[in-house]
TrEMBL record:
Protein name as annotated: Deoxyribose-phosphate aldolase
Lyase keyword on record: yes
Reaction equation(s) it catalyzes: 2-deoxy-D-ribose 5-phosphate = D-glyceraldehyde 3-phosphate + acetaldehyde
Protein's GO biological process: carbohydrate catabolic process; deoxyribonucleotide catabolic process
Organism listed in the record: Fodinibius roseus
Keyword set, alphabetical order: Lyase, Schiff base
GO molecular function, one term: deoxyribose-phosphate aldolase activity
Annotated PANTHER family: DEOXYRIBOSE-PHOSPHATE ALDOLASE
Entry-linked CDD domains: DeoC
Amino acid sequence: MNSSSHSRDIPYPDIVPIDEVAVNQRVARLNSRSIKKESKVAALEMALSMIDLTTLEGSDTPGKVIQLCHKAKEPHADMPDLPTVAAVCVYPNMVSVAEKALRGTEIHVAGVATAFPSGTATLDAKIEETKQVVGDGADEVDMVISRGEFLKGNYHYVFDEIAAVREAAGDAHLKVILETGELQTYENVRRASDLAIRAGADFIKTSTGKVKPAATQPVTLVMLEAIRDFYYKTDRMVGMKPAGGIRKAKQAIQYLVLVNETLGADWLTPDYFRFGASSLANDLLLQIVKQKTGVYQSSYYFSND
């Protein structure tokens, strides 16, 4: 069945050919740009405000999640004017803990759902889990697509699944994780991005952080271009979330340059761009202190999470 014979919004996006050499060259070119001190401080603080502070381990406890929420609310005790992070992202059984700890703040609670990280569960189970995390207080849902179905070419299945989870999430924002490390080609990344966007994603996200490679700048550029092209056609802004492997402030700033040059300044806000990270916050704080005081603070001043 081709897309013209289907009643919904193009669940079979056209294949967009991707020039891998050109993608890598553009990323390298943008990475060569330098940022001056005043702009660098602003960029570091912007990146901090865009973090989804994340703990997704089997050993997670309520105490660990509560500690993470305290860090989200007050990234650095000696710098109360710093922005808070955007969200705290946890497993479904910890959503209610995070919601209680963050109540009264503007920090979002994100719950992973749909059998994260594998995505191998029935649609009914995925819908039930989505409704559970929203019911427990998540105002953002991070779902994973069925990569096996996608790689078999069963694009209708993937489209329908995302659309069903979108409906189950209600008013919560939906971030759709493509797990790009398993998609094999840039063309697949682009097609999966287009599917997710057209099925109702509020954000598209690179990775669960459980598969390598996780976020890379070339893959992120391919996804940003899908967002750009969709915006040109529809005027609907979709967010982007690279996740996994982004640990250093320098990397974060490179991603911000990538976003600005591909989508423009309107996307440089936590409403449309996030970092999925756990250790990135500490390096951003380290670099902010260095820029403001001229000296590096000891890593002992930062919580190890």
